[in-house]
Amino acid sequence: MDLGGNGGGLPVNNKQRAMTPNKSRGEFPRNSRKDSDGLSESPDLEFEYSDTDKWASELSELYSYTEGPEFALNRKCFEEEFSTHVSDKKWTELDAAQHRAHAMRLLDSLEVIVREKRLKVARAILYMTQGTFAECSSEVEVQYWMRYNIFLLLDVGTFSALVELLNMEMDNSAACSSAVRKPAISLADSTELRVLLNIMYLMVETIQQDDPADKPEWKTMRETFRAELGSPLFNNEPISVTLFGMVTKFCSGHAPHFPMKKVLLLLWKSILFTLGGFEQLQSLKVRKRQELGLPPLPEDSIRVVRSMRAASPPASASDLIEQQQKRARREHKALIKQDNLDAFNEKDPYKADDARDDEDDNDDNDNSLETETFPMERDEVMPPPIPHPPSERVSFPKGLPWAPKVREKDIESFLESSRSKFIGYTLGSDTDTVVGLPRPIHESIKTLKQHKYVSIAEIQMAKEEEYQKTPLSGGDEEVEMSATELLYQGILPSLPQYMIALLKILLAAAPTSKAKTDSINILADVLPEEMPTTVLQSMKLGVDVNRHKEIIVKAISAILLLLLKHFKLNHIYQFEYMAQHLVFANCIPLILKFFNQNIMSYITAKNSISVLDFPHCVVHELPELTAESLEAGDNNQFCWRNLFSCINLLRILNKLTKWKHSRTMMLVVFKSAPILKRALKVKQAMMQLYVLKLLKVQTKYLGRQWRKSNMKTMSAIYQKVRHRLNDDWAYGNDMAEPLVPVSVNVLTCRICSQLLRNPATIPCGHNFCLQCIEYFWEQGASCSCPECGQTFPSKPRLTRNSTLAEVLRGTEDRQSRKRRSSASPRVQKMLRGEEPSEDSLCLLHNGSLDVFCYTDEQILCSLCAIAEHAGHKLGWVKEERKRKQEELMTLQKNLQQILQDGEKKKQKMCRMFDQIKDEAAQTEEYSEGAMVRVIDGFQTRYLSLRETIAAQAETAASRVHSCLQTLEVEMDAVRRRRAELDRLAQSGSDRVFMQKWASVQRLSRTERLTCEEDAENPLVSFEAMRRAVQQTVKKIQEFSDREFASIFSEGTSLGKG
């Protein structure tokens, strides 16, 4: 990312911070400095700017403290599902095959129709992505199992199923209409959405963490997932576009129950994962410059910014008085000699200021910087430098940190002005010819060319201009379908609405003391069903709400900055289109409104309860919360996310205003200088750098008195911000310029093409004659600017611009005096009205042209009429003008009538559009209800059919069971007879054998099984039922195909008609 002009953000080893417990990075390891009075200053904020915070912090910010009880609910749902399949082991004791099998079972269970069952399964999957924390003993172990389980779920295809469920919940009209009707929305209204978004966020956030210890297959899965996430595989569009749609639907009021914090966090991490962070941006920029044959970047901006030190903030008036009193009591010390200027270039320009903050100081004067002098200006010895702990710093030559840059157009402008001054002619864009110019100009051009910088945007614009010159012969433009290009094409149709929606949410989340009556409700996913009843609960909810807003600001600022940076690198026109719509949506005043607060209090806010953060809250025993512990907060000296948000917003403001004069003037008009100066009190080098950049671009418009009163701010700009060698930022408006009259073209009405009469300024800033613009709006269908085309919702109230009228009067007087002084005596008489003007005199006879020849349709003088037009029908010009004027009025009336008829037809067609939309919506709603009723009917009949089949199966089984019991009894009797026969056969007595033989023979002949197999097969009824169902389904399909074909043909014929 572009830090100070070029590069990327600060690199962070995510692996080193991925497995660390959730501790904020708001710490102060640097030694504090002392000012020249011996007063201890506050140390620099040890803030490490990167794509995201620590992994544990990013995970904890997903959940609000109100969602705490749901952790146990997720665990319960998982254990109920898990125990039905595995009863003797824990999840962490299973092998990989068993893990995969259970994950597949959960994925299959997501496809059930019953919402309650589906929600339980989704909670079980959420518990897996949360690391199955009940079986873990430490936060590191939870994070390990989170990573393992998430890659397992990704491998079995869980993310695609989640996207489908998310689309179903988005289109759930019943939930949307119910939420719209509710007077107050709480967590309960978005349970299904929150569970799905939690799983998706945890998967994206975890997979994007690149760990060198990952398995090779995990690395392959990560790259595949990155490509799928940025391609239109989900619902024929990238997942980011779907999330943008949720944002606009929420802001339109049609879905107020959407959990917007989770949506924005998932949107941010999806864009970050698919497009790449600040380091990837820097690498892409270097690669693109190589491909275009451009020279390498002049320096590594990441290292430059890392090497910078923060400046001391401007002191308040009370601090200055106290310092002056102490200085007066001090004895004077000897003045040392300054060896070179570089010794003071390395010094902090704010070092002599007191570090105490006074956020209520809205004075535009930087008295602290004016009255506090450098050590070389006092009678004292320069204090020795204070040693600092070693850190990674850049070895620069003594002097300025940035290499200067010069654009090609700046060199052309310098040459043109030099040629006009010394030679009197110009050569256009020729930057090589220096003939006739003084030797110093030659040296200046040589120096400027040494530091010439050609940006990728300039090459892109040059290619576009060349393509526009020959659009037919140039062929089709080849566009690389990168992830950035796919995202831009996806959001392009609705990009203005997306930008407006994001800024609406940013406005609602901005910390301000004034209530926003018309803002949207962004607290739907943080407010509980039952409001707190005790003071402690109210305090906890207050912390949760403030934390919720801070996270939303963090996500939106990161989204906007990432999009601007990636679009600018992909193509400058994409960046300009997005930036223009941000400006149209009042992004600049919104960011200034955000900074017009106690910014130091915002950055040091302690809206967090560390013991309730995930995963700490699910691993450790929760201590009892008290009002004192909530008020004290944590021990961090600053809030990482708030400082991150402030820097992002400043970078966005820099992107929007860079090289844009009109937007820079917006900063001046909105009086941003005192607002930005208060932000300098935050002692963080990167934040101060972007504040100084914004102050630099408007310095020359703030006046000499402001610059005189803020000399130390000017010095800081000189020391920390990149220089343009021909930059006039410090003195531009103070240069002695010749008094050149205002160009008449600037003061010309674009409607009548004449000098403005009674000038009026419309809201877009353009000027027109008061009568012209009113007539233009009366004739048109809408109130729009004839010059830029901007449309106004209602007719603006117009008043005469008296200041511009005075300028016009002076311009007219100067032009009139100039014409009269240079005209001949006869022309001067005509200008005074003493003689007719040249265009009213005949060139042959020098007579008045007041005769009109109807035959030849010519204007003549009386002598021409007598000499050359004898016998022709003649008349007076004035009378003919009156007649023609009446005809003209008739034509105007006819045209006006045609326009009115056309306007009526247009309004009728517009109403027809609305009616078409209403009818389509009603038809769709009716069709949906009818289909739901049909499906419900089929569901009911299906349940009845299941009951019939079950009853039939029970009857048949009972009959078979009864027969089986009878058969068992008879077979037992037969076994006894056989045993008797066996004993008889083994008898040794012939007499006994013969005595028993007759009875045994008689019984054996009558022995048989009475339980015969049923003549009717019980399976036949099932076959008959299957055939009946098959025939019924076939008839229903044929009927539906026939009837729906009729419906479709009816709709097609109506559409053609």
UniProtKB/TrEMBL annotation:
GO biological process annotations for this chain's record? cytoskeleton organization
The UniProt regions of compositional bias labelled Gly residues, in chain numbering, are 1-10
Q: Where in the cell is it found?
A: Cytoplasm
Bias kind Polar residues: ranges:
13-23
Biased-composition ranges, Low complexity, are: 309-318
Keywords attached to this entry: Cytoplasm, Metal-binding, Phosphoprotein, Zinc, Zinc-finger
Q: Is Metal-binding one of the keywords?
A: yes
Boundaries of each RING-type domain copy?
Answer: 749-788
InterPro entries membership: Far11/STRP (IPR040185), Far11/STRP_C (IPR021819), Far11/STRP_N (IPR012486), TRIM8/14/16/25/29/45/65_CC (IPR058030), Znf_B-box (IPR000315), Znf_RING (IPR001841), Znf_RING/FYVE/PHD (IPR013083), Znf_RING_CS (IPR017907)
| Superkingdom of this protein's organism | Eukaryota
Q: Please provide one cellular component term from the Gene Ontology annotations of this protein.
A: cytosol
Where does the record place Acidic residues bias? 355-369
Q: Which Gene3D superfamilies does this entry report, sorted A to Z? A: Classic Zinc Finger (3.30.160.60), Zinc/RING finger domain, C3HC4 (zinc finger) (3.30.40.10)
Q: Where is this region: Disordered?
A: 1-45, 309-380, 808-832
Q: Where is the composition biased (Basic and acidic residues)?
A: 24-37, 333-354
What is a GO molecular function of this protein? zinc ion binding
Q: Name one Pfam family in it.
A: DUF3402
Record domain B box-type: where? 837-877
- Asked if Iron is a keyword of the record, the answer is no
Q: Which PANTHER family match?
A: PROTEIN REQUIRED FOR HYPHAL ANASTOMOSIS HAM-2 (PTHR13239), STRIATIN-INTERACTING PROTEIN 1 (PTHR13239:SF7)
Q: To which protein family does this belong?
A: Belongs to the STRIP family.
Q: What does this protein do?
A: Plays a role in the regulation of cell morphology and cytoskeletal organization. Required in the cortical actin filament dynamics and cell shape. Part of the striatin-interacting phosphatase and kinase (STRIPAK) complexes. STRIPAK complexes have critical roles in protein (de)phosphorylation and are regulators of multiple signaling pathways including Hippo, MAPK, nuclear receptor and cytoskeleton remodeling. Different types of STRIPAK complexes are involved in a variety of biological processes such as cell growth, differentiation, apoptosis, metabolism and immune regulation.
Under which name does UniProt file this protein?
Striatin interacting protein 1
Q: Where does this protein come from, organism-wise? A: Oryzias melastigma (Marine medaka)
